[in-house]
Amino acid sequence: MKDMLPLEYFLPIDALLGLLAFFVSKAILERRAKRKEEEEEVVISFGEELDDKEKAVLEAIKNGAKTLNQVMKATGLPKATAYRKIKSLIKKGLVKVEIEDNKRILKAKEDKEDR
Question: What is the pTM of this model?
Fold first, then answer.
C-alpha cells in the first residue's frame, strides 16, 4: 500500500487533463467553424462567364420558375444537370433560395444589394 500515491495527487492531475481536453476540443471546433465559413464564402466574379445551360437556368428562374421541377420543364435539362447548374448559380451569387410556406423557392438576385 505504501507504493501507491495518495488521492490528493490525482485531483490536480485530473483537473489538468480536463483543461487540456477542453482546450484541444475548443481548438478543433474553432478550426472546423473557420473551415466551414471559408467554404460558405461566396466569391462573386462579375467577369466570370456563364455557360449556355447556366444562362438557360437563370433565364428560367427570372421568368418565374421557382422549383427544380419548373426549371427542368422550362429548360428541358435532366434533373441532375438542372440541380448542378442551380447550385453553381447560387455559389456565384446570382440565385438565392428562400423558404415560403415550408417550400424552397428559387429567386434570381436582381440588383447589386442582393449580391
Answer: 0.56
